[in-house]
Each structure stands twice: as structure tokens, then as C-alpha cells.
Amino acid sequence: MSKLLRTLRPALPSLRPAVLTRPISSSPFRLAGGVAPDPWPLPLSPDTISREKYAPERLSDDPESWNMPQPLDRTGEDEATMRARLVYQARKRGCLEGDLLLATYAKENLPGMGMEEMKAFDKMLDEPDWDIFYWSVEKKEPPPRWKGSALLEALKQHAKNEGKVVRMMPGLSDQPPARE
């Protein structure tokens, strides 16, 4: 083993400068005629975005024209199934503020809602999370379809929390039974 090291030792110093001086750079490599494009560009780097085939389409300023996914068709869903689904959907929204607001509202009001009120609540849950939150705390103007609706007014009243109740995320088993 030591004989092998003695044989390689003279070669190691000559290899070391070549290894240490090799440039490590993310800039495009240079050719004789100029700069060549990066052969492996990152997906959202300026080089890729500038190419026509990768350029993202500009969304219009009108949210109504956006191609949003359509909610599932739930025709034929019975009242108990709908109530259980709405309890879950009110809790699992994606933003904690919206989750807390909608889950506590559902805990207090969903058992007393009729089928039409639950359908309206279901349509409300199809809206983006932050929009519902901002409409309910009156930081953003609701669209005409929700402006002045009884559901949104009740949600605004719930968000004001005039009784200064300490609200916590209700458990799934904390839901009172549905009215008959």
C-alpha cells in the first residue's frame, strides 16, 4: 500500500491545481462565436420563460373568465350526507383563518339549516378560501352573487364575535345532531 502511495504522490500535486482551478459557474458556457444557451435550463428561469413555447398565458383581470375547475355534481345527495360533508369541508379549507371561521360557523349553524340553506352554504364553500375570509371580515367587497345574501350576512356577524367568545377548532364528534 505504501509503495502505491509513493508512486502516486508525485502525480497528486500536478493534478490538484487542475481540480481546484476548474470554474464552477451557472453562467452559460462560451463558444468561439459567442454565448450558447444553457443546455439544461431550469423550468422557470428567464431563458425558458422568454421562449414562446414555455411562456405562460396572461390571465385576464376578470376572475369570471378564468378556467376554474367545476364543483362536483352532487344531485341526489341526502340531507345527512350533505351535512356531514359540509362539516368536513368547512374544517379542511387550506388556510387556518378560514378553517376556524367556517368550522365554528358550521358547528353553531349547520344543525339548524334546512336543505336550501345547506345548498347555499355548499355554493359558498366552492369559493376560494381567502375570498370567503375577506368577505366575512369585510376587508374585500363580495361579488354581486353574494352581496347582501343572508348566508354572508350571518357569516359576517359570526366573524365579528361580539360576545368575545374564545373560538377553537371543533372536533368532528362535537357536532350536535341534525334537527328533525
UniProtKB/TrEMBL annotation:
Stored InterPro entries: SDH, SDH_sf, SDHAF2
This protein's UniProt keywords: Chaperone, Mitochondrion
Pfam families given in the database record: Sdh5
Region (Disordered): 56-75
Superkingdom assignment: Eukaryota
Subcellular location: Mitochondrion matrix
GO terms for cellular component: mitochondrial matrix
GO terms for biological process, alphabetical: mitochondrial electron transport, succinate to ubiquinone; mitochondrial respiratory chain complex II assembly; tricarboxylic acid cycle
Subunit structure: Interacts with the flavoprotein subunit within the SDH catalytic dimer.
Family listed: Belongs to the SDHAF2 family.
Known function: Plays an essential role in the assembly of succinate dehydrogenase (SDH), an enzyme complex (also referred to as respiratory complex II) that is a component of both the tricarboxylic acid (TCA) cycle and the mitochondrial electron transport chain, and which couples the oxidation of succinate to fumarate with the reduction of ubiquinone (coenzyme Q) to ubiquinol. Required for flavinylation (covalent attachment of FAD) of the flavoprotein subunit of the SDH catalytic dimer.
Full protein name: Succinate dehydrogenase assembly factor 2, mitochondrial
Top-level taxonomy: Eukaryota, Fungi, Dikarya, Basidiomycota, Agaricomycotina
